[in-house]
Design goal:
This protein is of the alpha+beta class. The chain has helices at 17-20, 54-60, 62-68, 88-98, 109-121, 125-134, 145-154, 158-168, 179-183, 187-207, 231-246, 252-259, 261-268, 283-295; strands spanning 14-16, 39-42, 49-52, 80-83, 219-220, 227-228. 48% of the residues lie in helices and 6% in strands. α10 packs antiparallel against α11 (231-246).
Length: 301
Amino acid sequence: MQSASDLNLSEYDILPKDSKDAGYGDNYHPDFSNPEGDMILASKDCRVMFRTHSFILKTTSGFFRSMFSLPKSPPRKAEEVIYLNDDEKVLEYLLRMVSGMPFPPLDSLDMAEQLLHAAEGYEMPGPLHIIRLSITSPPLSEKDPFRMYAICSRYGWEEEGKVYTMRTLAYNIHEGEHRRSLERLSTSALLKLMAVHRTRRETLRQRLDDPPFVSGKPAVCVQCTGLIEYHTWRELKYKIILEMDNRPLGDTIYQGLLEWPEAKACWRASCPTPGCQRLLYDKPETLRVIRECIDNLSLTI
Ligand SMILES: [Zn+2]
């Protein structure tokens, strides 16, 4: 579907009813068959006909407004058929939306995308707005967040895009299963999303090298002045960063710090000097500060 500005409207099929639909029978959609309607829209291959009012089309669609403003030669009859290339489901949704009629729940992302594409082509701001509202509530909001982010980015819906950016953080962006959704993104939208994922991991990595965390280099025990090694912390840090790659949200790290072998090794590490055996890490405080660091990471850009 092209927008009206791109389209040579004179090539569009607008024909008096009698001249073309004789062979199609009366396959009107039951909710769009009122004989008072002065305009008939035919879906792709004329599978379903929709009788509606030119006034509704003119006032809700820039495309039809342009089409109806074209000079008519010969003068139009009272009733005309416009042959469109859209599937009947798409036309039904759009016509219901612009006519203020109830419509079935939008539960398919494929359908939502087809509708957006058609509404954009027909320059129908109403349906675009309705679909925008629908994508942030179930069932659409529960669909693949990468695909939802792609839709928001395509239509410039910033606030909704932030919601889905956050939801992508529960996934590893480098996993092959997300490739198709990521391919739909513009380069700038893709770079933006990748930056959010990477920045969370890198910020946490840097934060875990700063005080109060130990540096990881050999040090001296504050209790016995014997030499101590912090290799258990280095290994735990590595594990935390790997987990951030897999799930940049970081929420699984809290449980990991209680269960991972690398974490358990840290919590039982002690000074090797006989008779000292001071525990090297303060577990409750370390858990608290790591959680604080993760909670402070930015969820969007
Ligand atoms: Zn010691």
